[in-house]
Amino acid sequence: MDIRKTFQKWAAYQQTVRELASLDNRQLNDLGIARTDISRVARDHANNL
Predict the structure, then answer these.
(1) What is the pLDDT of residues 4-39, one digit of tens each?
(2) Residues 45/16, Cβ–Cβ less than 8 Å
(3) Distance of CA 12 to CAs 26, 29, 30, Å?
(4) Full-model pTM
């Protein structure tokens, strides 16, 4: 894996965590995401790039 792809995945992970963490618990629940799942969801998203 090249450094650009690694950086893209890292940046996507960080952005996803920031955006999901800014939501309140009701909004997360509407999306079907528990606050404890944010890291997993962000990691899954970044790995699918």
Answers:
(1) 999 999 999 999 999 999 999 999 999 999 999 999
(2) yes
(3) 24, 22, 22
(4) 0.90
| Three-state DSSP string of the chain | CCHHHHHHHHHHHHHHHHHHHCCCHHHHHHHCCCHHHHHHHHHHHHHCC
Q: What are phi and psi of 31, to 5 degrees?
A: -85, -5
Q: Return the structure tokens found at 9.
A: 């995945």
Distances (CA, A) of 20 to 1, 26, 37, 38: 27, 12, 10, 7
Measuring CA to CA, which residue among 28, 48, 27, 44 is closest to residue 36?
Answer: 28
